[in-house]
Automatic annotation (TrEMBL):
Pathway(s) it belongs to: Porphyrin-containing compound metabolism; protoheme biosynthesis; protoheme from protoporphyrin-IX: step 1/1
The name this protein goes by in its record: Ferrochelatase
Pfam families: Ferrochelatase (PF00762)
EC number: 4.98.1.1
Catalytic activities: Fe-coproporphyrin III + 2 H(+) = coproporphyrin III + Fe(2+); heme b + 2 H(+) = protoporphyrin IX + Fe(2+)
Gene: hemH
Organism field: Halorhodospira halochloris
Intracellular or extracellular location(s): Cytoplasm
Function: Catalyzes the ferrous insertion into protoporphyrin IX.
Chief location: cytoplasm
The family this protein is said to belong to: Belongs to the ferrochelatase family.
Molecular function via GO: ferrochelatase activity; metal ion binding
Length: 372
């Protein structure tokens, strides 16, 4: 018999809260081999990420990958780890604080509770959802910080949310944001960050839009990620008024031997330097809402070395949007747009009337024998 979990306490005069789950991919607890082995076991064991039957993939995962990759990944994480911990985690915490603060500034809306949940590692999505429940969230909006939808990221996040809620007795009203790859606020924030970088650091001869890669067969099987990446890049180029031939789109972080989305970022920077004589290239990663291993180490360090070793002089990485105020504002607008129709998202609530109704409800409940 399944036992369903519930909020630790309940009061009939409790004002319902709109919970916002801000989700991202995740990070190991520390940059060590053991921590990376735990993290990679969870990440690469997700069938959304590796679409290979378990009987084929798991002998490779446990027999080879988890034996050889953790030490290499730990060394890479040590290059980007900060005194206060993982960059992705710390940036995510500040993003959540910024979103919570901006929502609280909406005088007649709310109340809101915002929590950070990682698909892999800590703080987990399950733990974040339980914290929202304890805060009184009867409605929850899930915002995966992946502008472009992919089954490997956004889809997997939805899986984790559903898995946790299957254990709850009182399942909240639920909405999930699938993508925001063409949201004007998101695009404007990226344009502002690129222009600011150019103003402070000079402008390269070519601008690369580098997105995380995935196997080509995922696209052929119907994943819209590739198309949404191209749309984001095109809209950014239009807003920046970039002439043809001055920008490119490419895909990074491939894993394994099968064909992934092309062109590959590492091959692109090598070709630009070696065959086209480009000396200064700028790289921005519009699919990453926060800087992490793939941007700070793979792009800013590894691909910079590829570029310089093949004749380039400067690869300039343009940071992710991170905690920029225009980024936080864009995310808040996206949240409010998708929360339309829920009372907490209204900007004209009659708080006195609602609290009176709650008090009356609590009084009736107590007359019927309820404790609170």
């Amino acid at each position: 018999m399944r036992l369903y979990s519930n909020k630790s306490s309940f009061s009939h005069d409790e004002m319902p809260v709109l919970g916002v789950l801000v989700a991202n991919l995740g990070t190991p607890d520390e940059p060590t081999t053991n921590a990376l082995r735990r993290y990679l076991r969870e990440f690469l064991g997700d069938p959304r990420v590796i679409e290979i039957p378990k009987w084929r993939w798991w002998p490779i995962l446990f027999g080879l990958v988890l034996r050889t990759r953790p030490p290499k990944s730990a060394a890479a994480y040590q290059q980007v780890w900060r005194e206060d911990g993982s960059p992705l985690l710390k940036i995510g915490e500040r993003q959540v604080e910024g979103i919570q603060r901006r929502l609280q500034e909406l005088a007649d809306a709310g109340p809101f509770a915002v929590e950070l949940g990682m698909r892999y590692g800590n703080p987990s999505i399950s733990a974040a959802l339980r914290r929202l429940r304890e805060a009184g969230a009867q409605r929850i909006l899930v915002l995966p910080l992946y502008p472009q939808y992919s089954a490997t990221t956004t889809g997997s996040t939805f899986d984790a949310v559903a898995k946790e809620l299957m254990r709850w007795r009182w399942v909240p009203e639920l909405r999930m944001i699938g993508q925001y790859h063409d949201d004007p606020g998101y695009l404007d924030a990226l344009v502002a960050s690129i222009r600011q970088h150019w103003a402070e650091n000079g402008r390269g001869e070519r601008l690369l839009f580098s997105f995380h890669g995935m196997p080509q067969r995922y696209l052929l099987n119907g994943d819209p990620y590739y198309c949404q990446c191209h749309k984001t890049a095109r809209l950014l180029a239009e807003r920046l008024e970039l002439p043809a031939g001055s920008w490119d789109i490419c895909f990074q972080s491939r894993f394994g031997k099968e064909e992934w989305l092309k062109p590959y970022t590492d091959e692109t920077v090598i070709t630009l330097a070696r065959e086209h004589g480009v000396k200064h290239v700028d790289v921005v990663c519009p699919g990453f809402s926060a800087d992490c291993l793939e941007t700070l180490e793979e792009i800013a360090e590894e691909n910079r070395e590829y570029f310089e070793e093949n004749g380039g002089e400067r690869l300039s990485y343009i940071p992710a949007l991170n905690c920029r105020q225009d980024h936080i504002d864009a995310l808040v607008r996206i949240i409010l747009h998708h929360a339309q129709g829920w009372p907490e998202a209204r900007l004209d609530r009659d708080w006195d009337q609602e609290q009176e109704l709650l008090r009356a409800s609590a009084q009736r409940a107590k007359q019927m024998g309820a404790e609170s």
